[in-house]
């Protein structure tokens, strides 16, 4: 494949290293000094098969609209725009565009999510188990809580009648029973650790994923990119769509 890297930070560089190791070519790069917002049109991608976007939430929707309008297939790891998914789906239909997104491209996180989805329906009749989500990342991470932590919390909220909303802020008073606490820590150089806990007076169950490096995320990104370039139908896809093709 030939790639366009939109965002050349830590994840962008990890994707570039792995892509070059797999003999893919990087046709274009965009960063804060050469932003996508300054691009005149699709020619700026230099014929790239797929764009890889790891930038910032404040520019994500603008980038996505450009990918759709310019007919540029894109894999988007930037979060913070998910409330606008209906609009993005409309753009993909309007422009016959292909876009794949995920809050986390780790295959291990996909396995954690699958395990949680299998367990969650059992919890609705087990009121004694109170769920929580905690995530820890390095000090340079732009958002808090992470998109992955929100996704895990949403799985629990959607399966538990007793939980009505996520509560991502620090709690300075007793938390309401209907709230599901999603907490965060920022310290050091932690690549990412996500914990789903189920606490009762009897015991505590934890499901956890810890990334050892960014290479696992980069591998998932490139798998998603290969899958997306092979699709003929336009649409808004997720990493789940790509993983089902390999039986994960």
Walk me through the topology.
Layout: E1 2-6, H1 10-21, E2 25-30, E3 50-53, H2 57-70, E4 74-76, H3 85-95, E5 98-101, H4 107-123, E6 130-137, H5 147-159, E7 165-167, E8 179-186, E9 193-199, E10 204-210, H6 215-229, E11 235-238, H7 239-244
Parallel strand pairs: 1-2, 1-3, 3-4, 4-5, 5-11, 6-8, 7-8
Antiparallel strand pairs: 6-9, 9-10
Description:
The protein has 248 residues and is an alpha/beta fold. The protein has 2 domains: 2-105 and 214-244, NAD(P)-binding Rossmann-like Domain (Rossmann fold, 3-Layer(aba) Sandwich); 107-210, Dihydrodipicolinate Reductase, domain 2 (2-Layer Sandwich). The protein has 7 helices and 11 strands. The protein has a 6-stranded parallel sheet, sandwiched between helices. A 5-stranded mixed sheet has the order 7-8-6-9-10, covered by helices on one side. A hairpin with a 4-residue loop joins β9 and β10 (204-210).
Distance between the termini: 23 Å
Q: What is the oligomeric state here?
A: single chain
Q: What is the N-to-C order of secondary-structure elements (H for helix, E for strand)?
A: EHEEHEHEHEHEEEEHEH
Low-confidence stretches: none
What is the overall silhouette? Answer: elongated
Total strand segments: 11
Q: From the 3D coordinates, which CATH architecture of the largest domain would you assign? A: 3-Layer(aba) Sandwich
What is the CATH class name of the largest domain?
Alpha Beta
Average pLDDT confidence is 94
């Amino acid at each position: 494949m030939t790639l366009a890297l939109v965002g050349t930070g830590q994840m962008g560089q990890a994707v570039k290293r792995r892509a070059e190791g797999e003999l893919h070519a990087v046709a274009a790069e965009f960063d804060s000094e050469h932003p996508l917002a300054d691009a005149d049109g699709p020619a700026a991608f230099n014929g790239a098969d797929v764009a890889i976007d790891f930038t910032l939430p404040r520019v994500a929707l603008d980038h996505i609209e450009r990918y759709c309008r310019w007919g540029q297939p894109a894999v988007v790891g930037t979060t913070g725009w998910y409330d606008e998914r209906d609009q993005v789906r409309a753009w993909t239909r309007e422009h016959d565009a292909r876009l794949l997104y995920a809050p986390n491209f780790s295959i291990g996180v996909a396995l954690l999510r699958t395990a949680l989805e299998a367990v969650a329906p059992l919890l609705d009749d087990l009121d004694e188990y109170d769920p929580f989500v905690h995530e820890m990342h390095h000090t340079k991470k732009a958002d808090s809580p992470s998109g992955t932590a929100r996704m895990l919390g949403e799985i629990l909220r959607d399966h538990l009648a007793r939980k009505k909303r996520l509560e991502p802020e620090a709690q300075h008073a007793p938390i309401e029973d209907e709230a599901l606490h999603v907490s965060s820590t920022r310290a050091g150089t932690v690549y990412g650790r996500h914990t789903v806990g189920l606490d009762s007076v009897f015991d505590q169950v934890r499901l956890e994923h810890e990334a050892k490096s960014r290479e696992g995320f980069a591998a998932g990104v490139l798998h998603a990119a290969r899958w997306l370039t092979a699709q003929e139908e336009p649409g808004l896809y997720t990493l789940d769509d790509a993983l089902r093709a390999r039986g994960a």
